[in-house]
Amino acid sequence: MSNILVGFDFSAGSAYAVDLAINIANRIGLDLRLVYVKEKDQDEGPVREEIERRNAGVAHLLHGIKMDYVIREGKVAEEFAQQVEADGSELIIVGTNGLSGFKKNFIGRNTYSTIANSKCPVLTIREDFNFDKSLERIVVPIDSSADTRQKIPFAARFAKIFGSQLHILGLYTSENSTIKGIVDGYVNMVDTYLEKAGVNHVVKCVDVPKNLTLTTLEYADEINADMIVIMTEQESSLSSMILGTYAEQMLTLSTRPILSIRPEQVNGLAK
Questions:
Q1: Residues 213, 247: contact at Cβ < 8 Å?
Q2: Spelled out in words, what is the top-level CATH class assigned to the domain 137-270?
């Protein structure tokens, strides 16, 4: 079974996640599954009643797809991961408020863990982001790392789904001509791929004066971007996988939705 998993906890952020999930699912013909992770000994009855009431309220927005829900108990990220494994989900969508109660400009541990350990891409949405318009402009940063291009097929698929324009942002993190040459080579490959795929896109390369994250976010502000697509350069810890610095900074500082893709996640919607 293939679907889109939506983390739900009655917060405003998770409600926005459901709205966007319905939009995406309608466009690509995937069913939706809401996942609520309850606390130990929490009564399921009121939870089920409220979820069913809310689902009934948006049922008219579903066009040829289904939306159901499951209630799990345990640690949020682990329960999401197990549900993804059971369903073969192609995408997780979570609102970045409520899952761990973090404040504006700070993302919670549950969301970090969900992204770091998920076997499918994760789209995070801030509850204060305006989704009254479609995803018109999507920023895709390209640097000199070996995995940087792996997000392109998924970003291209999103662009086709929404009729978006991809903004390929080449990032020169060094004055070294070899490093710049690597970035230029990757950007040219991406440009050729998108041309052949018929994806509307523009290309721009910029020097990174200090911080990779801030340069990307400043460009997103400049073009009024609607989403940023990143690779989650994970690092190993003794207990689990954690996100690398760039991914953490992007998720913490960005007010825009972030689509996070692990290097091995090049299937699903990217096809």
A1: no
A2: alpha beta
